Automatic annotation (TrEMBL):
Superkingdom of this protein's organism: Archaea
Cytoplasm is among the record's keywords: no
UniProt KW keywords: Metal-binding, Ribonucleoprotein, Ribosomal protein, Zinc, Zinc-finger
Protein name from the UniProt record: Small ribosomal subunit protein eS31
GO terms under cellular component: ribonucleoprotein complex; ribosome
Cofactor binding mode and count: Binds 1 zinc ion per subunit.
Subunit structure, as described in the record: Part of the 30S ribosomal subunit.
Organism, scientific name: Ferroglobus placidus (strain DSM 10642 / AEDII12DO)
UniProt record similarity statement: Belongs to the eukaryotic ribosomal protein eS31 family.
Binding site for Zn(2+): 32, 35, 50, 53
A GO biological process held by the record: translation
TM spans (from-to): none
Pfam family, one: Ribosomal_S27
Amino acid sequence: MAKGKGGGKGKEVVSRFYEIKGDRVVRTRKFCPRCGEGVFMAEHKDRRTCGKCGYTEFKR
């Protein structure tokens, strides 16, 4: 299967950001506080970062 545009390294499937619990949909990732709802933050080993504005939260 050939890769199309946007299939590069680091791209994730958005459906991984949600979980179904019973009859509800639950978000598994945090939204960026600067950009607002709809922009998820990336999960790293020691931090969370926003790819849009660069906001970073360090984990303890």
